[in-house]
Every structure is written in structure tokens, then in C-alpha cells.
Amino acid sequence: MTMGKRTAVLFLLMLITSSIRCLQSEANAGIAVGSEQVLRPYDRECLLSLRRRAAPEPGLLDYVPEELLKRPRKRGRRGGIKHRLRRRCNTPPLPSILFSNVRSLRNKVEELRLNTRILNEYR
Q: What start and end residues bound the annotated signal peptide (predicted)?
């Protein structure tokens, strides 16, 4: 398990537990807006207590399932325009009109217009 995921999981768990504690302590301090939404003001001590809890409790990650702690497997090639151009190396991006049949010229012009509008490689 990587340190970044562990830190993120710990932060979320601490945020949830401390927000539940703050809501329980200030149950009567809600302001009703309409009939559904309730806004609760937090005092300074409650917000500072969220920041102070930086050290995780031992055994806190034992309850987190392994599926959440696994890093997703990367598949395929690396993306990006810079990487694609580096992969092509010395072959310049030539428009497809140079290698076309005269009968399919209209389709090639439409394709070139579309590529110049969408792809950064053609701009």
C-alpha cells in the first residue's frame, strides 16, 4: 500500500468521525432553510480539532477493504500529444491528401478540416 493512499484514507476517516462528533455536539444549532436542507455552523474549536488529528490511531487501516487499497493497473500506451510525436520520431505528420486517390479527394478534404479543427497535431 502506498503512502499517498494511506494518507488519503486516514484523512477521510478522520474527517468523517470528527464531523459526526461535531454534529452530535451541536445538534440543536441548525438553521432550517426550506423544509429539506439544514445548515450547521461550526465553532472554531471544532474546526481546529480536525486539523490537530494528524497522527493515525494504530490498527485504523485494518477495517479498510483490500479493494480500496489496491492501486489500479495501468493498461495500454502512454498518452499525450508530446509522447505521440516523440514516438513518431523522424516521420513528420503529413496530411493524408498527399497519399490519396483523386476520386476520394472530397472525403480527404473533409477529414483534413476535421483534423485541423480537433487535433492539436495538425494546428
A: 1-22
- Please tell me the total number of residues recorded for the chain in this structure: 123
Number of domains in the chain: 2
CA angle 82, 87, 93 (to 5 degrees): 75
Q: Which of 12, 9, 3, 7 is nearest to 67 (CA)?
A: 9
Helix residue spans in 26-60 (DSSP H) = 44-52
Establish if 76 belongs to a structural domain.
Answer: no
Domain check: are 45 and 24 in the same one? yes
pTM of the model: 0.23
Q: What is the pLDDT along the chain (123 residues), one digit of tens a residue?
A: 565 677 777 777 777 877 776 666 555 455 555 555 566 777 888 777 776 665 566 676 677 777 777 877 778 777 787 887 777 777 666 665 566 677 778 887 888 888 888 887 766
